Amino acid sequence: MIGVVIALVALGMALVLKGVSPAVLINAPAILIVAFGTFGATISSFGLPMFLKLPRLMAIGMRGPTGDSLAMRDQLVTFAERARREGLLALESDIEEVADPFVRRGLQMVIDGLEPETVDEVLQLEVEAMARRHAQGATMLAAMAGYAPTFGILGAVMGLIAVMAHLSEPEKLGAGIQVAFIATLLAVGVANILFMPMSVSLKGHSAAEASARRMAMAGILAIQAGDNPRMVGRKVDAFLDPATLRARATAGQEAGSPATLTGLPEAGAT
């Protein structure tokens, strides 16, 4: 959202510095051509049900990253420690505390005694299905970023046609030329300030969520295999940003706790 605001402010300030009021962009014919033309082409391409998801997709694209990978990491290591001491069935009472439904389903399959290959296959299918769903939204916004400038060009051509139709009436030429250029400006602006950045943002959110789920898969399968909690931590750490792990390790050292390479206190440290 911060980036969108910066881009809009830059556009408005550029108009003001050129001696033009930003209110000139509020032009009904130009908005009609660009907005409804783009929306119509999008509905034709992706269907009405998908198009109606646009507000939610825009809201997701404008927000910052969600989820706490470090908290998930710590939870998985805690589960590994308990499973190591008391067995996998001991985790059944802790499943309801897991906020992530994906992790909860994975742990439930482990507790139910499914084969590791089956657990891995089911979780992998869920990740792939999620990626496909997310790709639809990102693809639609990317398509809209392509449709909008095209309709901006159509608006420019229509404006020039109106100009040519009134060459004998100089007082009407300005309005036609204005529509031509405003339509192009609006179309290119909305494509590069909203639609394309939101498409890229959605792809980033999807990649981050897929990485978090694969991290959870690695931890769940390691717990099922009975790995040492320290090894479980090392496996899930491979999915985390090294800078984040170093910051945690530094914080642990400053707090007086001996930190491991993965940023957690040594076993038995208080």
How would you state the average pLDDT, rounded?
84
Q: Helicity, in percent?
A: over 70%
Rg estimate, integer Å: 27 Å
Give the termini separation. Answer: 42 Å
Number of domains: 1
Number of helices: 10
Binned strand content? under 5%
What is the string of SSEs from the N terminus onward?
Answer: HHHHHHHHHH
Shape: elongated
Q: Structural class given helices, strands, pairing? A: mainly alpha
Low-confidence stretches: 257-270
Total DSSP E strands: 0
Major sheet description:
none
Please describe what this structure looks like.
The chain has one domain. It has ten helices and no strands. It has helices at 2-17, 28-46, 48-51, 54-62, 69-86, 101-111, 116-165, 173-224, 229-237, 242-254. Helix 2 (28-46) packs parallel to helix 8 and helix 7 runs antiparallel to helix 8. The radius of gyration is 27 Å and the shape is elongated.
Q: Concise description?
A:
The protein has 270 residues and is mostly helical.
Lay out the secondary structure.
Layout: H1 2-17, H2 28-46, H3 48-51, H4 54-62, H5 69-86, H6 101-111, H7 116-165, H8 173-224, H9 229-237, H10 242-254
Helix pairs in contact: 2-7, 2-8, 4-8, 5-8, 5-9, 6-7, 6-8, 7-8, 8-9
Give the tags.
270 residues, mainly alpha
